[in-house]
Amino acid sequence: MLDPKSLDLDELCAALEDHSPDATWWIHTDDGRIRSGGPGGAGWIAIGSVGSHEGYRDMAEFVAGVHHRRAAELLDRAIAGRGAFRRFKDTLFEFPELREQWFRYRDARSRRRAVWWLADAGLIERAVAIEWTARYPDPTTDDEDVPATSQLTVTYLRPGKPGRLEITARVRTRGEHLTVCEADVEQDGRELVHAVATFALLHD
After folding, report:
1. Which of 91, 95, 100, 113 has the most CB atoms in a 10 Å sphere around its CB?
2. pTM of full prediction above 0.85
3. In order of start, what are the domains of the chain with their CATH numbers?
4. In order along the chain (204 residues), what is the average pLDDT of each group of 10 residues?
């Protein structure tokens, strides 16, 4: 049996969620090493990808837990029909805090799936799986007030070149209902890009 502490759980998550048609992933039963491509060989077993229905269920259950009415309505509309994953992703860009909550939620779900996959494959004991999945609970949402991007202006001042970039960001003004942020991208002391974003705080 493998020790979950010795495994790269995030790499296993990536393997399980890789839906590329030619992708092949393997895990070694002795030490939990994970690799992609090539034949399996002695001690290696295949890591099959989970179906897209798992990802869709994660989205649907996340949306069901969103408290803010407008955000919930837009996200619920986004996941209906074909192209749901792309629309869901695009809609989350309007709600930065919800987007961060979604990443935490998705990661917790992915890690629990990875742990149960190990148990189902006979690589860890089921008692160990129960213990480890308890370490990755669904994060709670706190979205009574949600900042949404109401305006974004990006000004490209000059082209850049390969090399180091310096990015600075700051809050220019912050009010009860609106917050204005600025960001600059510089290279070799010259400004390349200037961006101004206005966020409206949506009250449920």
Report:
1. 95
2. no
3. 1-143 (no CATH), 145-203 (3.10.129.10)
4. 89 92 92 88 91 90 87 92 94 90 93 94 93 88 58 86 92 78 92 85 58
